[in-house]
Write a structure and sequence with these properties.
Helix content: 55-70%
Shape: globular
Number of strands: 0
Number of helices: 13
Structural class: mainly alpha
Distance between the termini: 60 Å
Radius of gyration: 20 Å
Largest sheet: none
Number of domains: 1
Order of helices and strands: HHHHHHHHHHHHH
Length: 282
């Protein structure tokens, strides 16, 4: 095995990055589970089929199965986008570069997230993430492969333009993973006075609600300040709510969730082509 890794530098880098990513994710998961146990959250949900389904997503993404599948595309795109490697942050001190990069990319993620809810084609794939009716920290991994793919492609150019030294990738990875994982946890934390600045579990749970008054907002991925700035901040003191998408019951199987967006788009097209069907819709 070591000889094989020595002969193939890319394979060695993939194994190392996968192990680092897994290690970071396991640390995040252990911290969150410990917090849930301390808060006496109902842990039986982790034995349900829906949680095991989300665990399968975690394996797919965290064990680099997805990365291996999309490597040919990104290998094709990367050399053709070298002109974008400006590295605007390269002259900044490391800490400042991390902060600016994180804020800039989160601003982009906020608007991408809003578009995912507003544009039918994007919503078709993003809705898979919202079909989870029992949120756990594993739910952060329930992302359709097509959504993961176009999101990755969209971030290539701004990532190249900004540029962050490779030595800073690990802290960025940890902060991003911890934030995404924590906000789906079974915790009713609001972060107190920081509620309007940083996305908390309570803030993000509102976004996963089936209540239209709640899910049409709170699009922030890491910073909730974007919602406060652009009028999409939703407040709610309710801690007990239903999650999922009303009228969209998708089985907890990877196959059903992969096919779902295509069925949804075909159904929309059929309604648009048949006035009788369109008029019959509520």
């Amino acid at each position: 095995m070591l000889e094989l890794l020595g002969r193939h530098p890319y394979l060695r880098e993939l194994v190392i990055s996968t192990l680092i990513g897994l290690g970071v994710y396991v640390v995040c998961a252990l911290v969150i589970v410990a917090a849930e146990l301390r808060e006496r959250s109902d842990m039986s949900v982790y034995r349900t089929r829906s949680a095991l389904n989300d665990l399968a997503y975690a394996v797919f993404y965290k064990c680099s199965i997805y990365n291996i599948l999309v490597t040919p595309l990104f290998s094709f795109l990367s050399p053709r986008l070298q002109f974008a490697r400006v590295g605007l942050l390269s002259s900044l001190p490391p800490l400042a570069a991390v902060i600016v990069y994180w804020i800039a990319m989160d601003f982009l993620n906020y608007w991408t997230h809003r578009l995912q809810h507003a544009v039918p084609v994007l919503w078709a794939f993003h809705s898979v993430h919202h079909t989870q009716k029992h949120l756990t920290f594993l739910s952060a991994n329930r992302i359709h492969a097509i959504e993961q793919l176009y999101s990755g492609v969209l971030t290539i150019v701004p990532a190249f333009l900004l540029g962050v030294p490779q030595r800073l990738w690990l802290p960025l990875l940890f902060m991003q993973l911890f934030s995404e994982t924590l906000q789906h946890a079974r915790l009713n934390w609001s972060f107190g006075s920081l509620h309007g600045l940083i996305v908390s579990p309570l803030f993000h749970k509102i976004h996963h609600s089936t209540d239209e008054r709640e899910y049409n907002g709170n699009y922030g991925r890491v910073f909730s300040l974007w919602d406060a700035m652009f009028g999409t901040f939703v407040r709610s003191s309710t801690t007990q709510r239903q999650y999922g998408v009303s009228g969209m019951d998708v089985p907890d199987t990877l196959t059903a969730q992969f096919i779902h967006p295509f069925r949804y788009l075909m159904s929309r097209r059929a309604r648009s082509l048949d006035p009788a069907i369109e008029q019959a819709q509520p």
